[in-house]
Recover the amino acids of this structure.
């Protein structure tokens, strides 16, 4: 089992040369995010991830969370690690200084979050959900709710959850049945059951702030009749401290394929007379407010895909360098060599490495755009950057998580039979990754959102602007050396594949919606491959410029060029086939009757 080492050098390259840290640091409120400060943050976060969280990853997986009569005990070491995490101020990094946050850009926080998730995904889920709840309350909550809860949540003293789905509802939130009854004092009594609630009960803090979807008595049917409520584990007393135990209880935790140390709870509200809750914002706008949390969570889950891919790659690379087996091809009578000398092992490692670097670059670029969308002084720039973020969040979530499964599975393959043995640790990454394509909206939900709300509804305006940007990058590379020309050609062909698919989707969506949706997931994968390839091409362009100038770490930049070339040859080459699936794949998927299956 290998240790985790935060890939700080690559993070710095992506932050500074692809995501534009200098531009983000020039935004109002981001002036303190200098290169020196960011480097220091990355260094300290890396130490915490490597030294505190990573050592608990495997032991936490083996021990798991434990339920006993409504109480949940986290894995050994969890409480102590969480205490260190909050004392070091990591919960407050990107939150509003008004509530005790440090106010750093989302871009910087994204790199730090990657470390937490690579080091220990199960642990990272708790602060992830808390940050989503903070975002929803800060945007939509009353002054009283903000005053009562935000400072404690930003400090990490209290954690937060997101309570959406129910046993009968799944992803169909229109089927939510939990109800909230108004009380004379302005509060509500909440009744119902919620499932799959991450860290819905635990022993790390003295209060948990649940954000809960429920219906008021006079609410309209469907998603337009859902309201959002704060339901704390302990109702606050007159001094704002946890007081009376609320009527919300954990009735069980799930036994899962992976993320064993993260308690996934079934919560019952109101079994003993009603759980005290407080309305967030306006009635019947709960789903709208919850999507503030959902977008935060979807991007964060995409980061889990990247992070698990990085961890699986590091483990496979370490094993490939140490495992001696067979002689080197073409060397007659040679000695036994480590398996990294074998061509197919090298291909697998390059496949893992190139996908991980492409995911990192795309995610960080989207994070930087999110900072600009919220902070840029020019309204038109804010609007264009928000459109870019909205377009690509489903891609970051869907493509990165699907890749995580494939990368982790490839990591098991690199290990051979030892990868199938739990003690090596390779299997845990695959088990942990498997949930990421499901929660916070399955890959199909992300893909349907992408082709519907983000492309068809606006006639492809934003995606066509992105296509123009990618063509500019390909054109610039085409003027370079032979290696850059190959990368440019691969990107150009990939962009043409996206363009053909977009044209089909825009033309077809309103005429034959089922045909369009058959190609939704293949299109999301196509978008991920090509936008990831765009970032790899930009990385190659930067690396070539540094090498030509004779500056910086030559080995690092040469590796960037080789990795970008591999991506063009092995990954972008898939784009044309995926585009054909989008355009031509409907008939084969839809023509069988139900009885013919």
């Amino acid at each position: 089992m290998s240790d985790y080492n935060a890939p700080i050098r690559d993070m710095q390259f992506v932050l500074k040369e692809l995501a534009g840290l200098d531009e983000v640091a020039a935004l109002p409120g981001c002036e303190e995010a200098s290169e020196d400060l960011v480097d220091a943050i990355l260094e300290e976060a890396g130490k915490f991830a490597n030294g505190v969280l990573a050592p608990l990853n495997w032991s936490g997986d083996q021990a798991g969370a434990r339920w006993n009569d409504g109480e949940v005990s986290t894995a050994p070491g969890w409480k102590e690690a969480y205490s260190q995490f909050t004392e070091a101020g990591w919960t407050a990094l990107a939150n509003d200084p008004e509530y005790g946050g440090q106010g750093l850009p989302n871009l910087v926080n994204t790199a730090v979050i990657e470390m937490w998730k690579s080091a220990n995904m199960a642990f990272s889920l708790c602060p992830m959900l808390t940050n989503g709840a903070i975002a929803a309350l800060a945007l939509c909550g009353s002054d009283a709710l903000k005053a009562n809860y935000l400072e404690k949540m930003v400090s990490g003293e209290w954690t937060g959850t997101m309570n959406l789905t129910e046993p009968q509802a799944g992803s169909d939130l229109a089927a939510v049945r939990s109800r909230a009854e108004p009380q004379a004092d302005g509060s509500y009594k909440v009744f119902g059951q919620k499932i799959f609630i991450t860290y819905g009960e635990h022993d790390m803090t003295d209060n948990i702030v649940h954000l809960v979807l429920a219906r008021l008595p006079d609410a309209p049917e469907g998603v337009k009749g859902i309201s959002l409520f704060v339901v704390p584990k302990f109702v606050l007393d007159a001094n704002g401290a946890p007081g009376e135990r609320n009527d919300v209880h954990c009735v069980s935790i799930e036994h899962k394929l992976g993320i064993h140390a993260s308690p996934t709870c079934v919560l019952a509200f109101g079994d003993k007379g009603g759980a005290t809750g407080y309305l967030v914002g306006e009635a019947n706008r709960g789903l709208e407010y919850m999507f503030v949390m959902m977008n935060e969570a979807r991007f964060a889950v995409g980061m889990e895909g990247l992070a698990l891919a990085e961890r699986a790659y590091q483990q496979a690379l370490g094993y490939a360098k140490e495992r001696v087996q067979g002689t080197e091809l073409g060397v007659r009578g040679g000695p036994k060599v480590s398996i990294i000398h074998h061509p197919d092992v090298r291909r697998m490692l390059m496949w893992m490495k190139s996908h991980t670097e492409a995911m990192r670059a795309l995610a960080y670029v989207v994070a930087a755009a999110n900072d600009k969308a919220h902070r840029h002084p020019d309204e038109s720039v804010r609007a264009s950057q928000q459109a870019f973020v909205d377009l690509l969040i489903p891609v970051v979530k869907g493509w990165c998580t699907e890749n995580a499964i494939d990368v982790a599975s490839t990591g098991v393959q690199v290990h051979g039979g030892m990868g199938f043995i739990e003690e090596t640790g390779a299997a845990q990454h695959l088990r942990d990754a498997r949930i990421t394509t499901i929660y916070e909206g399955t890959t199909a939900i992300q893909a349907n959102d992408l082709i519907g709300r983000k492309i068809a509804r606006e006639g492809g305006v934003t995606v066509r602007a992105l296509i123009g940007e990618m063509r500019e990058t390909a054109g610039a590379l085409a003027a370079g050396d032979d290696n850059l020309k190959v990368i440019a050609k691969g990107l150009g062909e990939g962009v043409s594949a996206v363009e053909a698919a977009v044209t089909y989707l825009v033309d077809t969506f309103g005429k034959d919606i089922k045909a369009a949706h058959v190609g939704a997931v293949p299109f999301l994968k196509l978008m991920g491959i090509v936008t990831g390839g765009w970032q790899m091409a930009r990385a190659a362009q930067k690396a070539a410029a540094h090498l030509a100038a004779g500056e910086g770490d030559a080995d690092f930049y040469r590796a960037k060029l080789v990795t970008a070339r591999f991506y063009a040859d092995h990954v972008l080459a898939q784009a044309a086939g995926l585009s054909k699936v989008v355009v031509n794949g409907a008939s084969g998927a839809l023509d069988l009757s139900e009885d013919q299956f």
The longest helix spans residues 286-322.
